[in-house]
Amino acid sequence: ISAMHTKIIVLHLEPYGDFSLLTPHGRRMAKELRHRSWLPQEDGTYKSIEVPGPESFDVWKSCWDVYEVIMLILRWPAEDVDQCPAFGDTSDPALSKLVATPIALEAYLQNFLTLVKESPGCWHLCQRAEDRCRAEHFPRLWRRIEETSGCTPTWSAVLFAAAEEDKYW
Fold first, then answer.
1. What gap in Å lies between CA 169 and CA 167, rounded to an integer?
2. 124-132: average pLDDT
3. Beta carbons of 110 and 135 less than 8 angstroms apart
4. What does the mean pLDDT of the chain come to?
Protein backbone atom coordinates (compact mmCIF):
# COMPACT_ATOMS: atom_id res chain seq x y z
CA ILE A 1 0.00 0.00 0.00
CA SER A 2 2.85 2.34 0.84
CA ALA A 3 4.57 1.71 -2.49
CA MET A 4 1.35 2.34 -4.42
CA HIS A 5 0.72 5.49 -2.36
CA THR A 6 4.16 6.82 -3.21
CA LYS A 7 3.79 5.96 -6.88
CA ILE A 8 0.28 7.35 -7.39
CA ILE A 9 -0.19 10.10 -4.79
CA VAL A 10 3.35 11.42 -4.34
CA LEU A 11 4.89 10.86 -7.80
CA HIS A 12 1.61 11.17 -9.79
CA LEU A 13 2.37 8.07 -11.87
CA GLU A 14 -0.03 5.48 -13.27
CA PRO A 15 -1.71 3.06 -10.84
CA TYR A 16 0.21 -0.01 -11.95
CA GLY A 17 1.00 -2.96 -9.73
CA ASP A 18 2.65 -6.11 -11.07
CA PHE A 19 0.30 -9.01 -10.40
CA SER A 20 3.19 -11.44 -10.15
CA LEU A 21 4.07 -9.56 -6.93
CA LEU A 22 0.72 -8.10 -5.86
CA THR A 23 -0.87 -11.30 -4.59
CA PRO A 24 -3.18 -12.16 -1.73
CA HIS A 25 -0.58 -14.63 -0.48
CA GLY A 26 2.42 -12.33 -0.29
CA ARG A 27 6.02 -13.33 -0.85
CA ARG A 28 5.39 -17.10 -0.91
CA MET A 29 3.30 -16.88 -4.08
CA ALA A 30 5.45 -14.24 -5.81
CA LYS A 31 8.04 -16.90 -6.64
CA GLU A 32 5.40 -19.24 -8.07
CA LEU A 33 3.23 -16.82 -10.06
CA ARG A 34 4.43 -17.73 -13.52
CA HIS A 35 2.65 -19.18 -16.49
CA ARG A 36 3.54 -20.55 -19.88
CA SER A 37 3.38 -18.33 -22.93
CA TRP A 38 4.28 -18.98 -26.53
CA LEU A 39 6.81 -16.96 -28.49
CA PRO A 40 6.63 -17.12 -32.32
CA GLN A 41 9.84 -18.14 -34.05
CA GLU A 42 11.12 -17.20 -37.53
CA ASP A 43 10.35 -20.65 -38.96
CA GLY A 44 6.66 -20.40 -37.97
CA THR A 45 6.92 -22.58 -34.86
CA TYR A 46 6.38 -21.45 -31.29
CA LYS A 47 8.75 -21.63 -28.34
CA SER A 48 7.38 -22.19 -24.85
CA ILE A 49 8.59 -19.67 -22.25
CA GLU A 50 7.67 -18.96 -18.64
CA VAL A 51 6.50 -15.43 -17.94
CA PRO A 52 5.65 -13.78 -14.63
CA GLY A 53 2.01 -13.31 -13.79
CA PRO A 54 -1.15 -15.20 -12.88
CA GLU A 55 -1.65 -18.54 -14.62
CA SER A 56 -5.45 -18.32 -14.90
CA PHE A 57 -8.32 -15.90 -14.56
CA ASP A 58 -9.11 -17.18 -11.06
CA VAL A 59 -5.57 -16.42 -9.86
CA TRP A 60 -5.64 -13.07 -11.71
CA LYS A 61 -8.97 -12.24 -10.01
CA SER A 62 -7.47 -12.82 -6.56
CA CYS A 63 -4.61 -10.45 -7.48
CA TRP A 64 -7.15 -7.95 -8.88
CA ASP A 65 -9.04 -8.06 -5.57
CA VAL A 66 -5.86 -7.00 -3.75
CA TYR A 67 -5.25 -4.26 -6.35
CA GLU A 68 -8.87 -3.07 -6.05
CA VAL A 69 -8.67 -2.81 -2.26
CA ILE A 70 -5.46 -0.78 -2.53
CA MET A 71 -7.06 1.54 -5.09
CA LEU A 72 -10.07 2.05 -2.82
CA ILE A 73 -7.88 2.73 0.22
CA LEU A 74 -5.84 5.45 -1.48
CA ARG A 75 -7.12 9.03 -1.22
CA TRP A 76 -5.96 12.26 -2.82
CA PRO A 77 -4.91 15.04 -0.45
CA ALA A 78 -7.56 17.79 -0.25
CA GLU A 79 -5.49 20.23 -2.31
CA ASP A 80 -5.03 17.69 -5.14
CA VAL A 81 -8.74 17.07 -5.71
CA ASP A 82 -9.27 18.95 -8.97
CA GLN A 83 -10.95 16.64 -11.43
CA CYS A 84 -12.77 17.24 -14.68
CA PRO A 85 -16.47 18.01 -14.20
CA ALA A 86 -17.38 15.41 -16.83
CA PHE A 87 -15.78 12.57 -14.86
CA GLY A 88 -16.90 11.37 -11.47
CA ASP A 89 -19.32 12.84 -8.98
CA THR A 90 -17.55 15.85 -7.46
CA SER A 91 -20.64 16.71 -5.39
CA ASP A 92 -19.73 13.87 -3.03
CA PRO A 93 -16.48 14.80 -1.27
CA ALA A 94 -15.75 11.17 -0.36
CA LEU A 95 -15.90 10.06 -4.02
CA SER A 96 -13.83 12.97 -5.27
CA LYS A 97 -10.95 11.99 -2.97
CA LEU A 98 -10.82 8.37 -4.18
CA VAL A 99 -8.02 7.51 -6.60
CA ALA A 100 -10.47 5.21 -8.41
CA THR A 101 -14.17 4.75 -7.78
CA PRO A 102 -15.70 1.31 -7.24
CA ILE A 103 -17.84 1.60 -10.39
CA ALA A 104 -14.80 2.41 -12.56
CA LEU A 105 -12.90 -0.58 -11.19
CA GLU A 106 -15.95 -2.79 -11.76
CA ALA A 107 -16.37 -1.56 -15.36
CA TYR A 108 -12.72 -2.41 -16.12
CA LEU A 109 -13.05 -5.83 -14.47
CA GLN A 110 -16.23 -6.68 -16.38
CA ASN A 111 -14.66 -5.68 -19.70
CA PHE A 112 -11.65 -7.89 -19.03
CA LEU A 113 -13.89 -10.76 -17.92
CA THR A 114 -15.79 -10.50 -21.21
CA LEU A 115 -12.50 -10.61 -23.14
CA VAL A 116 -11.36 -13.70 -21.23
CA LYS A 117 -14.68 -15.49 -21.80
CA GLU A 118 -14.56 -14.70 -25.53
CA SER A 119 -10.99 -16.05 -25.84
CA PRO A 120 -10.83 -19.15 -23.62
CA GLY A 121 -7.65 -20.60 -25.14
CA CYS A 122 -5.66 -17.37 -25.12
CA TRP A 123 -5.14 -16.66 -21.42
CA HIS A 124 -1.45 -15.84 -21.92
CA LEU A 125 -2.37 -13.14 -24.48
CA CYS A 126 -5.22 -11.74 -22.39
CA GLN A 127 -3.05 -11.53 -19.29
CA ARG A 128 -0.21 -9.77 -21.13
CA ALA A 129 -2.61 -7.32 -22.79
CA GLU A 130 -4.24 -6.46 -19.46
CA ASP A 131 -0.88 -6.03 -17.73
CA ARG A 132 0.36 -3.77 -20.53
CA CYS A 133 -2.88 -1.82 -20.45
CA ARG A 134 -2.36 -0.84 -16.80
CA ALA A 135 1.37 -0.22 -17.27
CA GLU A 136 1.57 1.44 -20.70
CA HIS A 137 -1.89 2.28 -22.00
CA PHE A 138 -3.24 4.01 -18.87
CA PRO A 139 -0.72 6.89 -19.21
CA ARG A 140 -1.63 7.27 -22.91
CA LEU A 141 -5.34 7.38 -22.09
CA TRP A 142 -4.70 9.89 -19.30
CA ARG A 143 -2.84 12.20 -21.72
CA ARG A 144 -5.54 11.79 -24.39
CA ILE A 145 -8.33 12.67 -21.95
CA GLU A 146 -6.31 15.63 -20.66
CA GLU A 147 -5.76 16.93 -24.22
CA THR A 148 -9.39 16.55 -25.30
CA SER A 149 -11.05 17.85 -22.12
CA GLY A 150 -8.51 20.49 -21.10
CA CYS A 151 -8.48 19.43 -17.45
CA THR A 152 -6.80 16.80 -15.33
CA PRO A 153 -8.61 13.44 -15.58
CA THR A 154 -9.11 11.06 -12.69
CA TRP A 155 -7.88 7.48 -12.76
CA SER A 156 -11.56 6.51 -12.71
CA ALA A 157 -11.99 8.26 -16.06
CA VAL A 158 -8.97 6.35 -17.38
CA LEU A 159 -10.39 3.03 -16.14
CA PHE A 160 -13.70 3.79 -17.90
CA ALA A 161 -11.87 4.79 -21.09
CA ALA A 162 -9.79 1.59 -21.02
CA ALA A 163 -12.89 -0.53 -20.50
CA GLU A 164 -14.70 1.11 -23.40
CA GLU A 165 -11.84 1.20 -25.89
CA ASP A 166 -12.30 -1.50 -28.51
CA LYS A 167 -9.17 -0.71 -30.52
CA TYR A 168 -6.78 -1.64 -27.72
CA TRP A 169 -8.47 -4.88 -26.75
1. 6
2. 91
3. no
4. 84
